[in-house]
Amino acid sequence: MTTDEQLMRKALELARAGIGLVSPNPAVGAVLVDASGQEVGSGTHTYEGVKHAEVLALAQAGNSARGATLYVNLEPCSHQGRTGPCADAVIAAGISRVVCAMEDPNPLVAGRGIAKLRASGIRVEVGLFGLEARKLNESFAKHIRRHKPLVTLKSAMTLDGKIADATKPGSERGAATPATEGARSGYHWITGQVARAHVQELRHQHDAILAGVGTVMADDPLLTDRSGRPRRRKLLRVIVDSYLRIPPASRVIQTAEHDVLVLCSTADEHARQVLEAQGIRIQRIAATPDGRPDFAAIVQTLGEMEITSLLIEGGALVNGAALASGEVDKVYLYYAPKIFGGSAVPFIAGEDLRGKAQCVQRFELHRFGEDFALEGYLRDPYA
Q1: Which pLDDT does position 169 carry in this prediction?
Q2: Which three-class secondary structure state does DSSP give residue 342?
Q3: Sheet holding 123-126, edge to edge
Q4: Distance, CA of 367 to CA of 337 (rounded, Å)
Q5: Which of 122, 175, 347, 356 has the fewest CB atoms within 10 Å, measured from its CB?
Q6: Would you please indicate which residues are annotated as catalytic (active-site) residues?
């Protein structure tokens, strides 16, 4: 690995340290190295910290920044936002070379920062570990360009595509969805401990998690981020509940701290008052012809709330509705080496996807103990 690669790796690591602390901004890390190869500054952007990674690195370096090389995973900004343009700060500091992994997908920047640096005489190189950098900030890219969150459908299932067996009450109707807390079947987990631990890491990477009321009634999940990592704002727990049937005694409701949003299409006034008295936010959402909350409207609403990433952990009915809506960008599907057979709950129910078939592209396979997961895209977040 060359020195450039090593230092860009470090910039990416610094950027990842901002996950959970940066939304709705991008995750950015920066490293400064002087002409002798000595590291003189570094920085990680956090939303509460306001200052961008490049500015933090420059401040740490002081006069040593003159003639230095800056490694950063995202193009230095060129516009006035909560802070001044980073490109101007880089120029003023006398940096001689900038190595950045990718252009900024923000339409207000989109190459303008690079152009400004080059116009000032700074040598700029773009593209080192570009794919990793794009993946790191794909939710920011989707939100800044489309004003919608990146939508990831997560599920855990057997090799024959079952998310629960038929022994749990309601499961034969596709209502029971133990996949939400790591894919339990009745009282048995489908996936192993390693995969379940990774689910918490996946939750930590998202602004919001969504499940249907059937999941809450059948499995009583918490739907919380238990990764142990710090967050700037709590994981927003979104429950799709057309008729406000969610039990006030459920764990989601009992643990609510202004981090639970219930989306309904028809609201019973008494049920609304009971839930709101417990600190639950209730919001009506546009309904489909069959009375269910419309997924496109859900995604649009969350985008307006500056939710940049949504993790769907629903059951068969929610999975079907989400995929049929065309709003899912990405899937993360965990598989356990088990087979349940035809009477068990399928991955998708309630929707006929004929004519709406979608191909998973650019997929990767990950191993988690005895289990594995497929991570892939239904559409490009940068499109």
Answers
A1: 44
A2: coil
A3: 39-44, 29-33, 69-72, 97-100, 123-126
A4: 12
A5: 356
A6: 54
User: How far apart (Å, rounded) are the C-alpha atoms in residues 91 and 315?
Assistant: 52
Q: Which two three-digit tokens encode residue 231?
A: 């967050």
| pLDDT tens, position by position, 273-312 | 999 999 999 999 988 887 778 999 999 999 999 999 999 9
Assess whether pLDDT exceeds 80 at residue 251.
Answer: yes
Dihedral sign (CA 160, 162, 164, 165)? negative
Decide: pTM greater than 0.85: yes
Residue-wise burial string across 127-147, b where 16 or more C-beta atoms lie within 10 A, e elsewhere:
ebbeebbbebbbbbbbbbeee
Cα atoms in the 13 Å half-sphere on the side-chain side of 368: 26
- Within its chain, how far is the Cα of 287 from the centroid? 25
Could you tell me if 175 and 217 are in contact, meaning their C-beta atoms sit under 8 angstroms apart? yes
**351, two tokens:** 């929707």
- What phi and psi values does residue 254 have, to the nearest 5 degrees? -65, -25
122: CB partners within 8 A, 6+ apart = 90, 91, 95, 96, 97, 98
Q: How far apart are CA 35 and CA 77, in angstroms?
A: 24
Residue type, 156: A
State pLDDT tens for residues 316-355.
999 999 999 999 999 999 999 999 998 899 999 887 777 7
Count of C-beta atoms within a 10 Å radius of residue 328: 22
Smallest Cα–Cα separation from 209: which of 220, 224, 221, 190?
224
Report yes or no: 50 and 28 within 8 Å, Cβ to Cβ: no
User: Cα–Cα distance between 109 and 103 in angstroms, integer?
Assistant: 8
Position 1 confidence tier, pLDDT thresholds 50, 70, 90:
low
Q: Which amino acid is it at 145?
A: R
